[in-house]
Write a structure and sequence with these properties.
Blueprint: H1 3-24, H2 30-55, E1 60-64, E2 73-77, H3 79-102, H4 113-128, H5 132-150, H6 157-185, H7 193-198, H8 203-221, H9 230-236, H10 239-265, H11 270-293, H12 297-324, H13 328-363, H14 374-377, H15 379-392, H16 399-411, H17 420-452, H18 459-462, H19 469-487, H20 489-504, H21 531-552, H22 578-589, E3 597-601, E4 612-616, H23 620-640, H24 648-669
Antiparallel strand pairs: 1-2, 3-4
Helix pairs in contact: 1-2, 1-4, 2-3, 3-4, 3-10, 3-13, 3-19, 4-5, 4-10, 5-6, 6-8, 6-9, 8-10, 9-10, 9-12, 10-12, 10-13, 11-12, 11-17, 12-13, 12-16, 12-17, 13-15, 13-16, 13-19, 13-20, 15-17, 15-19, 16-19
Subcellular location: Cell membrane; Membrane
InterPro entries: ComplexI-like_HydComp (IPR052175), NADH_UbQ_OxRdtase (IPR003918), ND/Mrp_TM (IPR001750)
GO biological process, one term: ATP synthesis coupled electron transport
């Protein structure tokens, strides 16, 4: 049976699970039934995608008798679609397994279950779409289903605001993509991707369409300043949905960018690569800076997603620049780094959101200032969350290090680029990427340390409990994927070879067959990495140190005053908080990046009350763009509101004036 047919049956299965959730949503057995069915369907989708990537199956296409009359819906499963189908369904399988237990905490499951399967179906259909109509329809299908999941807690004003902002950004992105398709198709009336590849829209129309695609897909992926919906929507949604929004749906936005720019448009200037590289570098640094400032754990993870999307776009921008200059091997390296990071981020970000959901379910809190000491109450969650933090901080031998290392290797090839703008810009972006990597380490030291170490800062943290077995199994599975992709990256790189060959015309040499399972992306004399050796070295050195300390240490019990580490009082108020941890970084970047407003209310001499400290950090996108834009729209709407109260004669005069203006426009056009 063709792989594309199986993929379509998987989409139908997800829709069927949504129907079951709508009909039986309030029944006790509906939650495990719907999520269990989605788990089985997602695993089937993973097998189909792996078969295409590793089996070398040719691209298969089909035309469905739905959609526009006489045209139908075109779908196609090629290596690029198969890779992103793997990312989508792997994340869907993990989220469904996690939700079998976590979903029992939902107050109103009927507001989640019908849209969960629908959301998964929409993401899979976007990946398979091969014409503009099917693509935009499934894109909106995905957006509306995810919006319903974001506002599932409809009694919360924060959820409703998050849904409103998300809907605005989604609609704006869709409008940009619609205009881009119109420019690419021109007057031909044929909107299939196969036709758009050969349509030849003209240099100006192609450049404008490329910019619209960057904006339209960047709004879904989370490029700054189009990221504003992420920090609002991700904390508002249930944790397993947050993992899908952050770890999976943003990757669908990246897929749309790759499909339309690399595949459909194809012919572009090297300066497009410069725009994408600079956007990615700025997004990476600003995203992690704002992540460090957060006290809400899920909001921190949402801003971290912005950072990682920036890293992916750095790789994609490099691939664009290298490909435009005919440097196939360098473009293949940059594309491999970007796609590898797509897979890595889907794994470790889903793991971290599952961990945040476990903390929320076990303690009822996601405010880091009210947590602490959870390593004693939730030890298994603490271990897997630590692995996720190490992965996202790009520490070897885990997977996040490999993809960022490959990105740096591609940056080191930038002197080969002939354009002076790129010669200066790419090293600067490399410095930004290094800064982002360092700040990411600080961010997740803060996240793990404040949440799991120290003493409990609230009764909720002191009485927290471990999550259920389904959630632990999902997190442990993703942790193993992070470790496997980091220690055996050659197999992942070889699986990406068909994708990079289709997109850049070249692919990296086979890596899995190299001695000791090393990876050599360029040449042995230049750079190489062996995650397996690093892993065994860390295990051996850690074991040797533990045994040596145990053997050498005295068995006598010695009593002495413990070093208080700056905590003379046995109170959680004396330990570092999240705000105090981030204070040095905040002081360095506050005047340039953040609209920081600190308020300190100290007690007067003799007044017996604690000091009060308030910190307000504002996103510059809201300060300088969206805030003024919203206020301008409101003022214009208030003025235009007068048009509702005119007399009939004034209404007729306005109609007549509009007709005259239209006639003049038509005459000038002719």
């Amino acid at each position: 049976m063709p792989e594309v047919a199986v993929a379509l049956w998987c989409i139908a299965g997800f829709l069927g699970a949504g129907v079951v959730g709508a009909v039986l949503g309030n029944r006790p057995f509906a939650t495990p039934l719907v999520y269990g069915a989605c788990l089985a369907i997602a695993l089937l989708g993973v097998l189909v995608a792996l078969g295409v990537l590793f089996g070398g199956a040719p691209a298969t296409a089909s035309v469905l008798p739905v959609g526009l009359p006489g045209i139908g819906a075109h779908v196609r499963l090629d290596p690029l679609a198969a890779f992103f189908m793997l990312v989508v369904d792997l994340g869907a399988a993990a989220a469904s397994l996690y939700a079998i237990g976590y979903g029992r905490h939902a107050a109103e499951p009927r507001r989640v279950l019908p849209f969960y399967g629908t959301f998964l179906a929409g993401m899979n259909l976007v990946v398979l779409a091969a014409d503009a109509f099917t693509f935009l329809l499934s894109w909106e299908f995905m957006s509306l289903a995810s919006w319903a999941l974001v506002v599932s807690d409809h009694r919360s004003s924060a959820s409703l605001r998050a849904g409103y902002v998300y809907l605005l950004m989604a609609g704006f992105g869709t409008l940009c993509l619609l205009l881009a398709f119109g420019l690419l198709a021109g007057t031909s009336g044929d909107f299939t991707f196969a036709h758009l590849r050969t349509a030849g829209a003209g240099e100006t129309a192609t450049a404008l369409a490329t910019m619209l695609v960057i904006v339209g897909t960047g709004s879904k992926a989370g490029l700054m300043p189009l990221h504003v919906w992420l920090p609002l929507a991700h904390p508002a949604a249930p944790s397993h949905v947050s993992a899908l929004l952050s770890g999976v749906m943003t990757k669908v936005g990246i897929y749309a960018f790759i499909r339309l720019v690399f595949d459909v448009i194809g012919d572009f200037s090297p300066w497009v690569g410069l725009v994408v590289v600079m956007s990615g570098g700025g997004t990476a640094v600003l995203g992690v800076l704002y992540a460090v400032m957060q006290r809400d754990l899920k909001r921190l993870l949402a801003y971290s997603t912005v950072e990682n999307v920036g890293i992916v776009f750095i790789g994609l921008g490099l691939a664009l620049a290298f490909r435009a200059n005919g440097q196939g091997p360098a473009a293949a390296l940059a594309m491999t780094a970007a796609l590898f990071h797509v897979l890595n981020h889907a794994a470790f970000k889903s793991l971290l959101f599952f961990g945040a959901g476990a903390v929320l379910a076990g303690s009822g809190e996601r405010d880091m200032e009210k947590l602490g000491g959870l390593v004693h109450r939730m030890p298994q969650t603490a271990v897997v969350f630590l692995l996720g933090c190490m992965s996202i901080a790009a520490l070897p031998p885990l997977n996040g290090f490999v993809s960022e290392w490959l990105t740096f290797q591609a940056i080191l090839l930038s002197p080969q680029l002939p354009q002076w703008g790129l010669k200066f810009a790419v090293p600067a972006v490399g410095a930004l990427l290094a800064l982002a990597a360092a700040l990411a380490g600080a961010c997740f030291v803060k996240a793990f340390g404040v949440v799991f170490l120290g003493r409990p800062r609230s009764p909720a943290a002191a009485t927290a409990h471990e999550i259920d077995a389904f959630g632990l199994t999902a997190m442990l599975t993703l942790a193993w994927i992070c470790l496997a992709a980091g220690t055996l990256p050659g197999f992942v790189i070889d699986a990406l070879a068909p994708v990079t060959r289709d997109l850049t015309g070249s692919a990296l040499p086979a890596q899995a067959s190299l001695p000791w399972l090393s990876i050599v992306p360029i040449a042995e004399s230049r750079s190489s990495y062996n995650g397996l050796v690093v892993f065994f070295f860390l295990v051996a050195s850690g074991s040797f140190t533990a045994i040596a300390v145990h053997r050498v240490a005295s068995r006598r019990t010695r009593r002495a005053p413990a070093w208080d580490c700056g905590y003379p009082l046995d109170s959680p108020l004396t330990q570092y908080s999240g705000a105090s941890f981030a204070m040095p970084i905040r002081r360095v970047f506050a005047t340039v990046t953040f609209g920081v407003h600190e308020t300190v209310d100290m007690p007067r001499p003799g007044e017996m009350r604690p000091a009060r400290f308030r910190l307000r950090v504002r996103d510059p996108a809201w300060r300088f763009f969206y805030g003024p834009l919203a206020r301008g729209v409101e003022r214009a709407a208030r003025r235009l509101n007068r048009l509702q109260f005119l007399t009939i004669r004034r209404y007729l005069a306005l109609v007549f004036a509009a007709l005259v203006v239209l006639m003049l426009v038509v005459a000038a056009w002719r």
